[in-house]
Amino acid sequence: MDWNIYLSGEIHSNWREEIIETTEKEHLPIKFFGPVTDHDASDDCGVKILGHEENKFWHDNKGAKINAIRTRKGIEQSDIVVVKFGEKYEEHLNDIFNNKILLILFIVAISFVIYSSFR
């Protein structure tokens, strides 16, 4: 069985590549998923899919919404999620928000295990 691991968090360094290369060298049964790490592509995905915006706010808003959908899907399909925050805390508010979803899923999973144990 392969483990599905979502690598979330900052996209400004090569930390994902380091993890992937190490696990490949060890021949570990892992499939990795993550966000679009090309910063321009990540920012522009909303307008490429949904159409051009003159106002920068709406341009960024469309990109953030599309990226949130991708992140949520990746988290939901993963067995493990690894999150790395960058040096500037406020740059990663989207990661913090998206990983609240993780906490909720974890609580639901633990609740199910506890409930199942007492049935």
Give your account of this protein's structure.
- With 119 residues, the chain is of the alpha/beta class.
- It has one domain (3-117).
- The chain is built from four helices and three strands.
- It has a three-stranded parallel β-sheet, sandwiched between helices.
- Helix 2 (39-50) packs across helix 3 (56-76) and helix 3 (56-76) runs parallel beside helix 4 (93-117).
- The longest helix is centred in the last third of the chain and has 25 residues, at 93-117.
- The radius of gyration is 17 Å and the shape is elongated.
- 13% of the residues are buried.
Rg over C-alpha atoms, rounded to the nearest angstrom? 17 Å
The residue ranges in which pLDDT falls below 50 over 5 or more consecutive positions are: 111-117
Terminal CA distance reads 29 Å
Note the main sheet. 3 strands, parallel
**Pairing-aware structural class of the strands and helices?**
alpha/beta
Strand order across the biggest sheet? 2-1-3
Shape category: elongated
Residues in helix, %: 55-70%
Supply the number of structural domains.
1
Q: Which band does the percent of strand residues land in?
A: 5-15%
Strand segment count: 3
How large is the count of helical segments?
A: 4
* Element-level helix/strand string: EHEHHEH
In round numbers, the mean pLDDT is 80
